[in-house]
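User: Predict the structure for this protein chain, please.
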Amino acid sequence: MKIYSNEIVFRGHPDKVCDQISDAILDECLRQDENSRCGIEVMGGKGKIFITGEVTTSANIDVELITKRVLKSVGYSTNYEIIDNLGKQSLDIALGTNDSVGGAGDNGMMFGYATRDNEKFLPTAMVILQELSMEYDDLRKKDNRFLPDGKAQLTGIYENNQLKYIETLTICYQNTEEERKITDQILKDISGKIANKYNININNFLINPTGRFKIGGFEGDAGLTGRKIVVDTYQSFAKVGGGAFSGKDLTKVDRTGAYKAREIAKNILIDNNQLSWCEVQIAYAIGIEEPLSINIETDLGEIEPKKALYNDCKPKNIIKDLGLKNICYEDKAKFGHFID
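Assistant: Here is the predicted structure, written as structure tokens:
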């Protein structure tokens, strides 16, 4: 038996809001020009939202309009000074990522993970928190006592790496501080319903342990794109690569390499019923087409990657495989990139 904790932040957490703004700007660039090259960073706090980074695109975008649309959707005020400091991507990088070369957009290592815990091939504790975060977002749209900001942490008891029960579920949620007993109980009931789907019981709750959470969002904290990469991936159940996802076009292997590694890990479990989990690492060098390495670990040992897999993991082939159609990266940023 062991005790282990993981966490999620709600869609209205300041860091997550910045992720969504970065990806919303990226979405509009790609919608108008699928060859856009973007690395968009956002910082928000205390009445200002600062947008910087690199964008090379033929798209005509209104950064302020996009930003305010995201703020309204999240449940924030739109009364912010929005500072557009975007520049163009370096032509030095373009030399290695254009169509004739097709190289990676950066150095780095990316990880993908899958486990047979449930039909989503994700750790059950992670799935419970993701569903809670989604339920909370629906709740605050219907009940104005609930405000956008918040996070949750699950402390579970495990046996043979399987979640047996939740010892403590900690929920910090921004609210009007009206009828707290009622709003707290609503969250307890929602959490219990979600956990019961996976035959998991909750022993204890900690709800707003300081006693009060009325001031939140950019008034209570600053936000920054990419500061929640553990939440974005596997909530500490697996290794995390070195780069953030949001605001980056498909040549940026921080994003697409991680998506591909996740796909590989899932497919390995689907093809081999004897395996309980799989973790895949892919590493790239900027401007170089083929990955430097692919490492596949499972609960039954390493798997030697086939040569064809190196070809599949070339950035241009990943882009072809993933495609741009029906992909809204802003949606991926809302609750964690591996919510699939």
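The radius of gyration is 21 Å.
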